[in-house]
Description:
Layout: H1 2-13, H2 17-26, E1 33-37, E2 42-44, H3 50-56, H4 60-74, E3 80-84, E4 87-91, E5 95-99, H5 102-106, E6 121-123, H6 129-139, E7 142-146, H7 152-166, H8 170-173, E8 183-189, E9 194-204, H9 212-218, H10 221-250, H11 260-264, E10 271-277, E11 292-297, E12 303-308, E13 314-319, E14 322-325, E15 333-337, H12 339-344, E16 353-357, E17 364-371, E18 378-379, E19 397-398, H13 399-407, H14 421-424
Parallel strand pairs: 6-7
Antiparallel strand pairs: 1-5, 2-4, 3-4, 7-15, 8-9, 9-10, 10-17, 11-16, 12-15, 12-17, 13-14, 13-16, 18-19
Amino acid sequence: MLTKAMEKLTKHFQQRDAKLDELLNNWSNAEAIHVEEKPLKELEKGDTSAKQLLNKGSHPEANHLMEKMTNDIDDGKTPIKQQSNAKEKFSTNEIQVSYDGIIQAMEQFSISKTFFPGVPLIDLSKPESKSQLVKACEDFGFFKVINHGIPTQFITELESEAVKFFSMPISHKEKTGPPDPFGYGSKKIGNNGDVGWVEYLLLNTNTQSDYHKFASIFGEAAEKFRCIVNEYVSRVKKMACEILEMLADGLKIQERNGFSKLLMDEESDSVFRLNHYPPCPTEFGESSKNLIGFGEHTDPQIISVLRSNNTSGLQISLTEGNWISIPPDSNSFFINVGDSLQVMTNGRFKSVRHRVVTNSSKSRLSMIYFGGPPLSEKIAPLPSLIKGEDDSLYKEFTWFEYKKSAFKSRLADNRLGFFEKIAAS
């Protein structure tokens, strides 16, 4: 019976085998298969191939799928291929099958020319993590870490306070704004016309910062909010510095704190941001699925540490115009290489371009630490990573100069373009 089912499935999917084989072979780090009950759900072209999943055989849910598909075939309920605007779709009667990572990556858009092999997952407690960190920064400029040493209580306490704040009436929240640059903002991102379906709090990471703006809405609880933010930032900053030192080891840089000392400096220009993306109103209809929460950009600082709840929305671009959705993971921290680190490694590490799209049914809350150098710090490729000055891809600049230039640009602009030697010649 199973052989008969496989023969029929093989014939049904034969036109797609080559492309899906390549996709699944490249998806070396994809996570477990899971099956979700969703009646009459159409599967996007990139979501899965039932044949490929069934070939896995050893997975209990794949076997469950085999039985289900076999029964359907015997009942004459084979998947139906549809064609619409060059998008191939498949529908099944009762179940949605998703290859975790693929379905998340393709959930908003049709399959792209570049197939993402999965978010690099790095266990910081393992001895091989140094080389893995370097490779992730070289290949993607983006990865997630586990065994990071940050207790859950600091994460949940801050998230709870953030939820309380963003749940307040808009009139209350606006008392902590407008951002100057710190404070509450909504929809408007920067001063150059960028907007998004987002509200946010931008905070100084200086532990002595005055939280007087919050006194009018938090009252005596403003001090509690300040302490929770400071404790969280302190922990995340420590982790960021440890990652930067492991990267320095991996690059065989003699000065192990060559990167991390810039974050540890008392004059470090680091910031902390809380972003809240409310559910997109249903009146936007189908367009709500692709509404931009935060437009495409790279982070100008050295390193960014992101933690979000279990709502999807984050996307990265590995090639021009191809966007890939990142499955949410509230148990890990996502790390972005920033523009400054790209310059300091002379382009060896990549500053990843990313954005956030809205979710039509659930709120997304993210907390990001942006580790930056002092304003007067000169940013240039480290001498040990280049053969000579002629090999440098970038002109030297101070963080203040780059920050000033970035503030004058739009989010999607190539901010580093003005500082590239080739562009300048």
